[in-house]
Amino acid sequence: MRILVVSDTHRDSFSLRAAILKQPRAEVVIHLGDGEEEAADAKDSFRDRMFLMVRGNCDWGSTLPDEGFTALGGKNIFYTHGYTYNVKYGIYNVVSAARGRKADILLFGHTHTALTEYRDGLYIMNPGSLCGSAGTYGILDITPAGIVTNILKV
Q1: Among 96, 132, 95, 125, which Cα is nearest to 111's?
Q2: Architecture of 12-153 per CATH?
Q3: Taking CA 20 as the corner, what is the angle to CA 53 and CA 61, rounded to the nearest 5 degrees?
Q4: 51-103: pLDDT as tens digits
């Protein structure tokens, strides 16, 4: 199963659409906040994909949750924008939250800095910010052989 992970699109609908079109095998798109409006538009345009979304600190007036938890491909995924866990000052709090939920995978955004890491059984990914010409997004592949995380440029 391929999952497209994006965050911090900040009204850049073009880059979001480009990332989705570049990943035709991605069955699921997880948007980690700060771009609810363009994520909702993309969800309407790409009805063949499952969309999971949380709100970010710039999604004013949003009714989306601050975090989500789902099982995909047999793995538990905890996802959040990250501002409620102060991820700009370190990831200890968000990693602890993921471990407390028995997640296999942690996805967060907010910092605009891409990250992939593996810590004692927990895959961690921040796809960075998708907006602009230097935008990045993440690919999460869950297969019977294991989990692979990648960061790609738009």
Answers
A1: 125
A2: 4-Layer Sandwich (3.60)
A3: 30
A4: 999 999 999 999 999 999 999 999 999 999 999 999 999 999 999 999 999 99
